Amino acid sequence: VEDTDSMNSIDGFSGMLLITPDADWKEKWETPPEVVPRLSSADTVKIGEKLTILIFFVNPKIDLENKIDLDCDIRTIRPDGSFTFDLKDYDCGNGELKGNPGNVRLARAVISFEAEPSDEPGDWWIEVKLKDKVADIEIPLKTKFVLLDSESQ
Questions:
Q1: Alpha helices by DSSP H, the chain
Q2: Does residue 33 have a pLDDT over 80?
Q3: Three-class SS of residue 116?
Q4: What is the DSSP letter of 37?
Q5: Beta strand pairing status for 122-132 and 137-147?
Q6: What is the pLDDT of residue 152?
Q7: How far apart (Å, rounded) are the C-alpha atoms in residues 102 and 38?
Q8: Which of 96, 104, 118, 125 has its CA 20 to 30 A from that of 8?
Q9: For a pLDDT cut of 90, what percent of the chain falls above it?
Q10: Left, alpha or beta for 77 (phi > 0: left; psi -120 to 50: alpha)?
Q11: Whole-number average pLDDT of the chain
Q12: What is the dihedral of CA 73, 77, 82, 86, to 10 degrees?
């Protein structure tokens, strides 16, 4: 798969951001390994609607004890350039790696957004630096959604 802003790979370690409007994303995700989850994606949101931003990873490096150690730096940026939050070194996954390293996994960080009337319309950016501390690899990821103004709704 070709690298994009929201999907990137370095030395076999891959990361991806997905913005989904699916309220039932967790039920769709928590399926047996042989079932491929189908999650919708979204790039716009209206006042009163909710979005969830998910971080996925594939093929993290394991240490000598078969453990992974992933951190994430996460920023959500309003249209005016200010941050709704700016987290550093958030635990996105650690512990024993079970199953095939090539399986797609969901990071621990899940970002929820509910568009409120006081929120500024325009482009809202999500920036994530997915860090495999065992491999010493950092993957930059970013995506955006557009909060529609009241006239567009």
A1: 25-29
A2: no
A3: coil
A4: P
A5: antiparallel
A6: 62
A7: 18
A8: 96
A9: 86
A10: beta
A11: 93
A12: -20
**Paired tokens of 113:** 């957004």
CA distance 97 to 60: 9
15 burial class (0-12, 13-18, 19+ CB within 10 angstroms)?
A: buried
Q: Say which residue the tokens 């325009």 belong to.
A: 122
The bridge status of strand 137-147 relative to strand 44-45 is parallel
**What is the reported pLDDT for 23?**
96
CB 95 within 8 A of CB 68: yes
**In this predicted structure, what is the pLDDT of residue 1?**
57
| Residue 127 near residue 90, CB atoms below 8 Å | no
Please report how many Cα atoms fall inside a 13 Å half-sphere around the Cα of residue 1, on the Cβ side: 14
Contact 108, 36 (CB under 8 A): no
Q: Which amino acid is at 56?
A: F
**86: number of Cβ within 10 Å:** 12
Phi, psi for 16 (deg, rounded to 5) = -150, 145
> pLDDT (tens digit, 9 = 90+) per residue, 112-150?
999 999 999 999 999 999 999 999 999 999 999 999 987
Is 147:15 a contact under the CB 8 Å cutoff? no
